[in-house]
Amino acid sequence: MFDFVIKNANLPDGREGIDIAIAGDRIAEVGPKIAAEAGETIDATGRLVSPPFVDPHFHMDATLSLGLPRMNVSGTLLEGIALWGELRPTLTREALVERALRYCDLAVSQGLLAIRSHVDTSDPKLVTAEALIEVRERVAPYIDLQLVAFPQDGYCRAEGGVEALNRALDMGLDIVGGIPHFERTMADGAASVAALCKIAADRGLPVDMHCDETDDPMSRHIETLAAETVRYGLKGRVAGSHLTSMHSMDNYYVSKLIPLMAEAEINVIPNPLINIMLQGRHDSYPKRRGMTRVRELMAAGLNVSFGHDCVMDPWYSMGSGDMLEVGHMAIHVAQMAGIEDKRKIFDALTVNSAKTMGLQGYGLEKGCNADLVVLQARDPIEALRLKANRLVVMRRGKVIARAAPRFSELLLEGRPAAVDAAEYAPLRPGKA
Q1: Catalytic one of 29, 159, 183, 213
Q2: Does residue 230 contact residue 193 with C-beta atoms inside 8 Å?
Q3: What are the structural domains, with CATH classification, of the chain?
Q4: H or E, element range at 247
Q5: Average pLDDT over residues 347-363
Q6: Of 2, 161, 286, 325, which has the fewest beta carbons less than 10 angstroms from its beta carbon?
Q7: Annotation marks residue 137 as catalytic
Q8: Helix 161-171 vs helix 127-139: angle between axes, to the nearest 10 degrees?
Q9: Mean pLDDT to the nearest integer, 242-250
Q10: 222-240 burial: b if 16+ Cβ within 10 Å, else e
Q11: In the chain, pLDDT over 70 holds for what percent of residues?
Q12: Element (H or E) spanning 33, and its range?
């Protein structure tokens, strides 16, 4: 007797007609035609069942603040930073918590059940840290939320930045962050990387740095981050986020850099939506788009995962909390249109991101947490094409969100009465 059985599911690895049996908060069995009674049965009808989506790079302290105190008229990164500097002194714990919880509601509806958020520690009041720690506790039953101590104005550059970051870590933030390219000089940026990696090593914490989010090919702090990762024995525990300068670097230098990153086991987190929106703003034409070298980094064996980064905040006026939207854009801007390319993109939204965040019990195998999403699509490629509707979202064996299948009624003589976009998937050899 199981609590739940999901029948006739397609899995991301290509298995079809699979049943998933759930007992309590764990997956008890996975296989074709499981013969057992269940308290509730869901027929996936040949649709994709995936582990939940994971966002390893987000800014929850700023989310849904679009228009406060004014709009980013130019849409640029620097105006966004200036806007945040105006908004930050007015922030209250209550408003921060309310916006973050609203975003988490949206995330759950999208099957997004794990998020790593950077938390600005540049204001010594640390109201952002207080608010996000409260949010982490309140959403724990349904979202794994990790918090990065992020010196938004620069670890060395901001007055009191060193003390504030250490105090935020003492309060219980999970990860050491940084932004070396925003320090006053390249030398200060390198010094901040070394200092922050030492803090992480001394405290036994991971590292996740905004690194080289610039079009400047000489912004090479990822090289320093990889070297300090090796120096302090942090292999596998360090993430480099954005890395957009790699888009502009010459190939010879990158041929040295990528093996160094692989040696350090750096986790790479591009943010396709915001990277292509903000980079290349000083170019006329040809115009750079700024996303890092995803294909080459994957080919070298690095763990590449994608972040949403922002939703309706001073830096990015778009966004929906939909990680499939992130992957859909990544396919286009990385020019990864092949069949296996798209499957790798889907992995970068799920299993790769779970590895970046160090999530335990993640996946769709026996013994894993009963966390999953039923999508209105046949397979990962179709899910990305359609940005598929989430029909069922389950957390620890409990359904926490549902949506009706998405159809359009047609009122055309001689044509079908309804259209389901998911039925337009291409035919496959040997399949009806």
Answers
A1: 213
A2: no
A3: 2-51+363-424 (2.30.40.10), 54-357 (3.20.20.140)
A4: none
A5: 98
A6: 286
A7: no
A8: 20
A9: 97
A10: bbbbbbbbeebebeebbbb
A11: 99
A12: none
